[in-house]
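Morning!

As promised:
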Amino acid sequence: MAEAILQVNNLCKSFGGVRATQNVCLEVLDGETHALIGPNGAGKTTLISQLSGLLPPDAGQIIFKGRDITGAPAHQFSRAGLARSFQITSVFTDMTLLDNIALAVQAHDGHSFRFWNNARHDDRLRQPARTYLQQVGLADRADQLASAVSHGERRQLEIAMALATEPGLLLLDEPMAGMGQDESSLMIDTLRQLHGKKSILLVEHDMDAVFALADTITVLVYGQVIASGPPDDIKSNAEVRKAYLGEDAD
Amino acid sequence: MADTTMQQDPPPATTRRRLSWTGLFSLLIFLALAILPPVAFYSGHPFWLDIFTRLVILAIAAVGLNLILGYGGLVSFGHAAYIGLGAYAVGVPAYHATYGGFDLIASYNGFVHLGLALLVSAVFALITGAICLRTRGVNFIMITMAFGQMIFYAIVSLETYGGDDGLTIDVRSEFPLISLDNPLTLYTVCYTSLAIIVFLLYRLSNSRFGLTLQGARSNEERMRAIGVNTYHYQLIAFVISGVICGYAGFLLGNFTTFISPEMIDWTRSGEIMFMVILGGATFLCGPIIGAILFIVLEHLLSEITVYWHLPFGLLLIFSVLFLPGGIIGAVSRIGGKKGQRNG
């Protein structure tokens, strides 16, 4: 049995009276694709934001690769090997795709207090950046501005940026949100290629994608985990069907 | 399979064209600044040399501010303070060298003045920057302005150095081999400084540091999410920016030989900001064009009316509304369109 790469213990987060995360416990195994599903407002994005260090949790523990990183600033989560994509695409729109990736490569290639050499001609950054772009099928778009490419391509770019930080675990917040059929299937292909090579925690509404990709599914409702297990168990879980799929378990 | 995608592809034609277009424009400006002032001086118009000297000094300050404003995306409203600190780093040691007291720094030696100007502005930038950079947006504007005004009132209250009335510098900074008393020498020093600073900033803006800074401007949350502590990079940029303005102040003190708190007032900070925005922030030479335009407008408009700030303000509003990226931004767009038509 693979070891847990990420362990979340009793994580809590409230916004005023809203308890967005309530005693969430979660375990992502090394190499698995773990899907996090739940209805709107279940606290999925809040959870991802805590796992990427952008939101400090009120209570609980985040243990990544055996290290407690609860409460560390966001950049240290990334340094530890947790990379995220955002639900609302977040890239450097005024830079080219290649520059975007190269910056992510650079962020994990030591400090950037280097003031003289032209980073745009640095093969140590450009070569790996091109490889990552190729991996998500954007090699021919390398010199376009990120603001000029399609929504789907920008989402692919975000995956490539996350990969460029060589993470131990990818946190993907609805990578298929707002995508057309073709773009979605392209994204599913990309994620399938990563399957087994990278540990992935995936938040997604598209159930076809979730059941096609996930090894384990955790269901979050009103900030609480109500079920966790292999896809087949979740499919037949009465509580999940009732709370999430909106069906009566007869 | 040949690894065609792995090769260093040339940048697309439009980008290349745009770069050369603004580059050419900047080169012309530098050429004009090299030729016109000496010509004016030798043809018996020393007044014009004075204007050019002031222009180049303001351009240095604007280029310095642009590092944090244009490349860092952080609107600092207190950069006149650094000019003031630089200028008083000339005035105060010279004052004590003449009238005695404060032996530690009393000196006419230019290296003492220069070292003091750079050191004081670096320390001030480091301390205030460390605090200011914890805020963003309007708060950042207000707190940088507050620190600037703090220096303003501090100097107003220093009766020894003239307080409100200012301080006359009797002896300019003394350097071996060159004399800043010669206006053409002073201009040459200013011009060379501008060229060197622009070149250094050109290297910096394309370096790993420069790209990190611009990444934080573009999307700070994303920058943190890929593992960069943006605060440290912005702080260093803030210090470099302050030091460049401190250097401009050192030159300004030597140029005017009269310094007063008035040069630190927040309206002065605003003027440098105007230059950056009018000329084109995020373009290396944009602020220089802004400085030229500022000087030209100041002279043209103030001849027509004493209320020259009014038309000037209207012009600024016009440029913000209709010329995003300032003058040089417009130039680069014209160049870009040409490039597309040709290609």
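The CA atoms of residues 109 and 238 of chain B lie 28 Å apart.

Hope this helps with the figure draft.
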